[in-house]
Records
---
Amino acid sequence: MKNKKIAIVAVSGGLDSCVTAAIANNKYDLALAHINYGQRTQERELKAFNDIADFYNAKKRIIIDFNHLAKIGGSSLTDKSIKINDADLESKEIPSSYVPFRNANILTACVSWAEVIGAEAVFIGAVFEDSSGYPDCRPDFFSAFNSVIDLGTKPETKIRIETPIIHMNKDEIIQKGNELNAPLHLTWSCYQSEDEACGVCDSCALRLRGFQKLGIEDPIPYKIRPKY
Amino acid sequence: MKNKKIAIVAVSGGLDSCVTAAIANNKYDLALAHINYGQRTQERELKAFNDIADFYNAKKRIIIDFNHLAKIGGSSLTDKSIKINDADLESKEIPSSYVPFRNANILTACVSWAEVIGAEAVFIGAVFEDSSGYPDCRPDFFSAFNSVIDLGTKPETKIRIETPIIHMNKDEIIQKGNELNAPLHLTWSCYQSEDEACGVCDSCALRLRGFQKLGIEDPIPYKIRPKY
């Protein structure tokens, strides 16, 4: 059997990155990267990452500690003095949960790893269409990042950023995950709770709305399940 | 007195970043960032950083721990099983000291900090002309990185990467440092020793050659001072 090519997938432990891993798994051997960045639900997300990595039997895994993002602050995810707002899915403003330039930090670390292990792609589960308005989820951002990789790595290094779900809505992502038998029951999305999802933060709201559109029950536990 | 604008300078503790800080200091209030990435001379470089930051009386400082670059390996600077080669200043090959995509990792962390503290520039002491051939020191790399910043941060955020010494030779950098009274005696460049510089690694060789061209004594201690 010919060895498959390797792709790194940045897996937060949430729904989007889980489905992204399922997509990458169709074509590549998976090398999974997880970032701790001092976010409130760090322990729960790490558990979700390990559960998903076990599910896919990923031999190559790396846990990256980005303590600087917590030191730097500026986000309700990493600074407990900033309140996590209840969801406002119609708002066009950048929410307080925005972690400054987070995706660029994640991608640079993954590209360093990719260059060493010879991976040819770095998958990230960024979502633009149905996103919360984070600037580092825009398709143009990832195109520009590919130029930075070409210019900033060895001439023989060829690594592309892949964003397979960037134009999907949450319900399309869930549907794709179900088609690919992705372990959605192992994922964690809530920004503020670690035992049962709160059901009211942006991340819970987007997720619940997606399942509700499809008429499917979200398989993870919630404190409350508002109708969105 | 009007408040000066803030610039972040990535200060490794070496000659190039010290002179870069001296240049930034002419126009900005300095916020200094230092990266530990598991390099062999980490403690000595951190001391040099703090000495330089004290010299400039920098109130804003951040020490960023990039343990992942050591975990990832692939460089003689972070992996002790890879030998640090003696200098070959004529070689056009990328040396074993190349840390994969290191400058991109440094810049992304600095940009996150810049967005939170409202800095308008991130200075980095990258050198292209007289460099060791690292791909992430190319001017085009930094131009592409500026596009990534524009696209990946909030619309109101305006941050530029500044590389003021990128086209200078080592002797020109030393001369510029002396003109600006930069504390070159506090810097540390050696890749492998922490008490006295080895005098034979790429970094020592480039530095010694620069001082020798100018007919000036390098103010730091060396085990040996070959003629380059």
---
Amino acid sequence: MVAPLKVGIAGLGTVGAEVVRLIEQQSRVLSSRCGRGVRLVAVTACSKAKKRGLDLQGVEWARNPLALANDPGVDCFVELMGGAGEPALSAIEAALKAGKSVVTANKALIARHGLKLARAAEQSGAALNFEAAVGAAIPVVKTLREGLAGTAVNRVYGILNGTCNYILTRMEQEGLSFAECLKDAQRLGYAEANPSFDVDGHDTAQKLAILASLAFGTRVSQSAIYVEGISSIAPEDLRAAAELGYRVKLLGVAVRTAKGIEQRVHPTMVPKTSSIAQVMGVTNAVTIDGEGIPPITLVGPGAGGAATASAVVADIADVARGVRALPFGRPVERLRKIEKAPMERHEGGYYIRLMARDLAGTAATIATRLAEQKISIESIVQRHANGVDAVQIAGKAAPVPVILITYATSEDAVYRALDAVQRDKVISGRPQVIRIEKN
Amino acid sequence: MVAPLKVGIAGLGTVGAEVVRLIEQQSRVLSSRCGRGVRLVAVTACSKAKKRGLDLQGVEWARNPLALANDPGVDCFVELMGGAGEPALSAIEAALKAGKSVVTANKALIARHGLKLARAAEQSGAALNFEAAVGAAIPVVKTLREGLAGTAVNRVYGILNGTCNYILTRMEQEGLSFAECLKDAQRLGYAEANPSFDVDGHDTAQKLAILASLAFGTRVSQSAIYVEGISSIAPEDLRAAAELGYRVKLLGVAVRTAKGIEQRVHPTMVPKTSSIAQVMGVTNAVTIDGEGIPPITLVGPGAGGAATASAVVADIADVARGVRALPFGRPVERLRKIEKAPMERHEGGYYIRLMARDLAGTAATIATRLAEQKISIESIVQRHANGVDAVQIAGKAAPVPVILITYATSEDAVYRALDAVQRDKVISGRPQVIRIEKN
């Protein structure tokens, strides 16, 4: 029997405490699965005095994360403090340099410093596992890193932020505004007091950066991602989407195009029949399009103490079993540099909602301006204020919403056409534009 | 650089040919991911002369599978012949005994001889990987074996047979009979000339046996599974299910109960809003309920050459990387014996459809007989022949369908009540009974 794996945990918040409990509760199964025991030997956290309801008898309390990482009695350093920088960064680096394997749930740190840390892991032959950083218990890192090792990925996209999906779900189901739903999400603890990180798409971007690297062998780079949040989405967009056979989701999308890998986060119209469209509330989901095979979709909890801890313990079990995968699936030197996607060159279908001043004139103008840019219209819907639709367009005094769905075109063509329509002064306000992602 | 992994493939059908192509096409990525090359060195198949469009120059042609398995030039034996017995069984045993790792897509063999083969793998320290045996490219074996290593599973269930799901989807969407849809499935190549293996649930049972072992640490045992196929399902059941908020799916279910692990395959009513209910056509899906965490659902192609080959190559890559997971996640000696679930003790909700001879009398009789068995009714619907529903029950001459949904009860209570109703002669024909699975 091999000696047990000696685990040290830095950070005893909701996730850390749950990991401590799981290691204890699952002790027999873990040693059976790993061929050796998994033993918690040391911990550290901001406050030693805080009541956590954990039995830490016989577990050493380290002075600080760095001391824990350097503790020669620790084989595997588990970082659950969070934060894109210190003290997590130095502690993980120290552990890897000392040849200790590292498990972390820290998406911000991996998105920002993943390459540097992966290099350190490679040099010492240690593992750097971060399944919990994306989609918590959904095994998406393992699937991209190992499960599709022999399959070229053409696209990976997903609902990676539960807060945004909760807000969009309620907006759609109850016809409420973004602001109302955000307030509810905050009250229920799904959104932070400062919700920008979630609703402006930055949380999704960090996770997408990690997935894209695993999928395409590119260097993880958050700054290469185009990011747009959900605050501009109105209930009328969700209603129109539903009528046209779509739903609006905040997606992170990384896709192989003729111009390279495009990485983007934005509100997206997805066909109502797609797997990703069925994902409601705080649930997360990732769809992977592999070369020559139908899409694979993984759905599950993207956050929460128990779900995150489940992934952390699985990562620890891999370390105990002696599995040493390359952190991003390939050697760091082989990861290709990635440029920021020029969104003006993005190609796809578009949803456009305009407020027409005079319907008859507007329709003719829009048709002309779109035709000038060689944009074909898949459908056009004019909605009366009372909610009754009419495809036939008739003159009207007050501004009336007109909704267009285009066939695939380029983003700069769309904006050139809309700029021209605005200069023609036939619409009031700014047009709403939402990209469409086909499955 | 480590020497390349030398692969031998037995079986060059659709999957085998696709694996040969993938190993060639993904050669650079594979060596980058695995830290060593993956090289096809030998093959064997029934006919050497058959045109397959493969470039097998420099690849040895082995006399037979056993010779390939014993070839000292082969490190990893890939079995893609299929069949629950010979020649696959002896060849795999020989390879494992010689310390060679084995990759197979053969669900029948693993369901029947999995334990024996796992023991051989353990003894020699070789890997026995079979991701492709269940759900093709859906990484469900890896998820249960590794991704949830630290999480107790309470239930695993899924749509594991694309043929049945295709038939049920078309029956529901087009109101067609089972026989009509089966004929179409055969015409489209989704069903065999002898469809029994698929539509009677045996294919699902083989896959469920493997999943249950991985999820619960029980000995893989197909004979411990209760199996019921979909041929008795009528379009009116699907219509009634839809009206009551359900869909009918052929599920394989393995669940931890107070009486042990229950394994069963049968048509099942699932809530329309569940992830599994959204899975249409030939697509497969598996949902895993882990202790304390929301369900994880994996959706994707459950069959097809490219999808199966994707999983086979990922398994080969794991072998190349030196990963040696225990075949069923735990040592064979630790796997617990499993008894066949006594379905009469199964507990859950039930859908019951009866043809009432005389409605007023029947309603009273049913209510009495169910009450005698302490069964509570969640809803009752009486459907006129013209398709209009009426909850209020009125007298009528011709037999009229009556549909009941019960609250959770035991299966023997349901059948005792229905036997009594039949003895009362208030219904014509046999009642239709479908189990309900809540998410």
